[in-house]
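Exercise (ungraded).
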Amino acid sequence: MIIGLTGGIATGKSTVAEMLKEFGLPVVDADFIAKEVMQPEGAAFDEVISEFGSDIVQEDGTINRALLGQRIFSNEEERLKLNAIVHPKVRKEMRRAAVSYTAEGHAHVVLDIPLLYESNLFHMVDRVLLIYVSPAVQLQRLIKRDQSGEEQARARIAAQIPIDEKESRADGVISNDGTKAETRQELEQLLSQWNILKKP
Ligand SMILES: CC(C)(COP(=O)(O)OP(=O)(O)OC[C@H]1O[C@@H](n2cnc3c(N)ncnc32)[C@H](O)[C@@H]1O)[C@@H](O)C(=O)NCCC(=O)NCCS
Ligand SMILES: Nc1ncnc2c1ncn2[C@@H]1O[C@H](COP(=O)(O)OP(=O)(O)OP(=O)(O)O)[C@@H](O)[C@H]1O
């Protein structure tokens, strides 16, 4: 089974991904792959520079992510251009990684895809696992984690479908408003229901 792990920015996907790894499931991380393809030797680097200009390259030759983030989260047209360059390469690599885990004998593979809904990637997964927090908690956690201002955090949240609109299309929803221990318990229950964790 291919499980699509998703949510909204800072709702707790990476936190849950770590728990899933502890349960022995392989996790393919779209954010990680997106970072890799944008490295100087990566498949998207040249195209990103020709689209966004050499201003976004730092002295060490890598892309200035903070600057690129400022640009794309304040300008939808630029965001869509970046998505069009990066996303096909990320999807290709994710499929390759999933096939490879399956060939190694894993019955279940998790694809951590932040933009599963926005990019309509339901066809890539068998089940959607949504990590939910209420919008107020989402904003607070994002500001705290990124040490960003409220305006910047709101701009990032606004670049995605609101978390409250994602619940209805999910096969499983885990609320991460409480403690991490509570989230882990909910996760364990859901994975047992889905026959992914065998009950002792
Ligand atoms: C603009 C970039 C360089 C900013 O880097 P930064 O280190 O600040 O953020 P990071 O990559 O850790 O992303 C954090 C979160 O932001 C959200 N996010 C990132 N890119 C996008 C986007 N294009 N649209 C909406 N939300 C996004 C996701 O929830 C993601 O988990 C980076 O986000 C990026 O390359 N984005 C384009 C690729 C992309 O869409 N990645 C997300 C899934 S593949
Ligand atoms: N239950 C929780 N209680 C308190 N803090 C939490 C909880 N779950 C996650 N966090 C914190 O909230 C922040 C966001 O969580 P995390 O990075 O897992 O989200 P994410 O969905 O992977 O984010 P992104 O979309 O940016 O990749 C982190 O600082 C994390 O430590």
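Further reading is listed at the end of the chapter. For now, observe: The mean pLDDT is 96. The chain has two domains: 1-26+108-200, 31-105.
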